[in-house]
Design brief:
Blueprint: H1 3-11, E1 19-20, H2 25-34, E2 40-41, H3 47-52, H4 54-72, E3 76-80, H5 84-95, E4 99-103, H6 118-126, E5 129-134, H7 137-145, E6 153-155, H8 159-168, H9 174-186, E7 191-196, H10 205-220, E8 224-229, H11 234-244, E9 251-254, H12 262-268, E10 271-274, H13 277-285, E11 289-292, H14 301-305, E12 308-310, H15 315-327, H16 329-334, H17 347-361, H18 382-388, H19 442-449
Parallel strand pairs: 1-2, 3-4, 4-5, 5-6, 7-8, 7-10, 8-9, 10-11, 11-12
Helix pairs in contact: 1-17, 4-5, 5-6, 10-11, 10-15
Amino acid sequence: KVAPVVKRLIERGTSVCIVNTNQQHVMVTSALKRFQLDSVDMSLISGNIYAEGPAAIAGHIMLSLNKFMHQVSPQVVVVQGDTTTAMVGSIAAFYNNITVAHVEAGLRTYDFQNPFPEEFHRRVVAVPSLLNFAPTPRARRALLAENIPSSRIWLSGNTVVDSLFDSLSKPVPGTATALLQRIAGAHPKGRLVLVTMHRRESFEAHMEDMCDGVLDLLSQVPDAVVLLPVHTNPSVQATVKQKFGEGQKRLIICDPLEADIFPFILKEATLILTDSGGVQEEAVSLGKALLVMRAATERPEGVEVGNAVVSGRSKEKIASLSVKILTDKAEFDRMSQTHYPYGYGNSSVLITDVILSHMKNGKPTSAPMSAGPHEGGGDKDPAEKQKSWSSHQDPAQRGPLHPAPHVQSHASLLPAPAASRGGPRGGADLVVVLTVFGRATLDLQMRMLQPQTAFKGRK
């Protein structure tokens, strides 16, 4: 998603350093190769750190990024999305007084448990970001509702559409052709169902249900051929192996698809089942029927235009909705129309313009501009839209964004009660974290605590 921005910045003479935290080595290496980019490989994460969870990962990344920013002293730090790296990168940049640009800002479910921990991450990233690039009008409204000033928000569209259309403009790779031939060999008139699963909140029991839903789909639709590229996460691999073994004739299991292959497979799919965010955007932009195997989505635009349905993770719902889409022609036709709610493939143009304007003038262009979907829009053909958003066009000539209506607050922003998170762990009902500023003041602080009711008579 960030590659189109990097490429445009380099083309316009900007010195760009890509920091690769090396968390998904094979997948990242593939993406860098596809876009002919180099990176600084920080190799921050060792295998045992993953088992310790997001807090340990965040701590390791923070220390290394802070040191790196001291050494390089960039003018702008660009973070993308809602990963741990994006959140920590924005905080490290803020601590070092460096401008933060957030690509894909403003996505919200208003539920900190879905997705976990990404919903929290992206809420945090918005606070220090001076340049917030919202992919849709809804995302922009969410930022405004959180009191992010409109002068810090640009409606840009999503850069994943740039990458998608760029990939599909190239010749079909031989590896993609070979995989498509393997799929065709599974059934003479088979229909491809592409399945991807990887989210943390989907692990274990939820993912087992998702796998069972896929098996039920296969048993009820004789011409369905499922392709499941298995994510590198050990938990995902263990569940898939337990449920599917090595696969079967109409269930093809493979390694993660490289960045230059995936768009061509996606294009040939009849139905997509996914818990991924980016795949939702890509599928809708290609007019594909889509089942979102999550409790909630921060990309409801796909549902609103009719391509996507949020199924949840129960096997019954996944199977029944999939079967209906594949066997009900009217339903399938309704869900297979092409829309462009996430942009037209030129989002990186505006983002690059704004970043360079900030670097040159010390501030971004005077008013937010839009290179993405407008309020009430999203169906214009990308080829036609591209003509009106030339990379040579002065950013100031692009129209201002429309004012956003008030966005309701949501009670579900509150963390889930302890019972729903599995109950207390260990013997303590409450943990108090004390920050002690200097050992010399420790005795004073403890003496001040003694008169408080909870500490009377205790050491």
